[in-house]
Amino acid sequence: MANILAVDDEQDILTLINNALKKDGHQVTVVQNPQQVDFEHLVGYDLILLDVMMPGIDGFTLCSKIRDWANCPILFLSAKTMEKDIMYGLDLGADDYITKPFGLGELRARVNAHLRRESREKHNLLFSSGFKFDLSAKEVLVGDHKIPLTKSEYRICEFLAKNRGQVFSKEQIYEAVYGYEGESDASTIAEHVKNIRAKLAAFELNAIITVWGIGYKWE
């Protein structure tokens, strides 16, 4: 079973998608207003279906925003069949383009094919607040740019990002990063956080928030 997000301004289309994909055991979340897409929870989806022509924000624009938050297949649904439109959508980061009107059998087959491929090629990545963590390479990226973190700085960022929204004292962070056998003390965490913020500032980003009198959290 996969968690799938479908965004389309036509309720009838959303109902058809929901009914079709549920036959394969998938959990489907439908959103009719594209401006109500919750970017904070995109990481929880295994696949996203996007209509192109929608009021307020079109699917192309939404896709470019989503790609900073989600590392899953994105499939466009659109009546636009011109090659230039298809190529533009794929260049934005989409994985496939299904033209309307489409058969429900085709939709199910395309969705399941991408889910199978994703399960084979799944990378060990974490997306949080516009940052991409490569958990295997122990790197943090903004877009295609690697942030030059030291080993300790990376560990602090990964720990806080994995526990997003929770507040930790310097002592708790130190213990999580270095364990009980650390050779320094918790006061070094503040210095590391200062250095991390300076490096993130180069990208006009900062995800580590100070909670005065308590510690830090990733926001």
Write the layout of secondary structure elements.
Blueprint: E1 3-7, H1 11-22, E2 27-31, E3 47-51, H2 59-66, E4 74-78, H3 83-91, E5 96-99, H4 104-121, E6 125-128, E7 131-134, E8 139-142, E9 145-146, H5 151-162, H6 170-178, H7 187-201, E10 208-211, E11 215-218
Parallel strand pairs: 1-2, 1-3, 3-4, 4-5
Antiparallel strand pairs: 6-7, 7-8, 8-9, 10-11
Helix pairs in contact: 1-4, 5-6, 5-7, 6-7
N-end to C-end Cα span: 30 Å
By CATH, the superfamily of the largest domain comes out as Response regulator
Task: Average the pLDDT over all residues and give the rounded result.
Answer: 86
**Level of helix content?**
25-40%
CATH topology of the largest domain: the name is: Rossmann fold
Instruction: Give me the secondary-structure category.
Output: alpha/beta
Instruction: List how many beta strands DSSP finds.
Output: 11
Main sheet summary: 5 strands, parallel
Assembly of the depicted chains:
single chain
The number of domains is: 2
Shape field: elongated
| SS strand fraction | 15-25%
Main-sheet strand order equals: 2-1-3-4-5
Q: How many separate helices?
A: 7
Which series of helices and strands comes N to C?
Answer: EHEEHEHEHEEEEHHHEE
Which CATH architecture of the largest domain would you pick?
3-Layer(aba) Sandwich
Organism: Paenibacillus puldeungensis
Keywords: DNA-binding, Phosphoprotein, Transcription, Transcription regulation, Two-component regulatory system
Modified residues (4-aspartylphosphate): 51
Domain OmpR/PhoB-type: 123-219
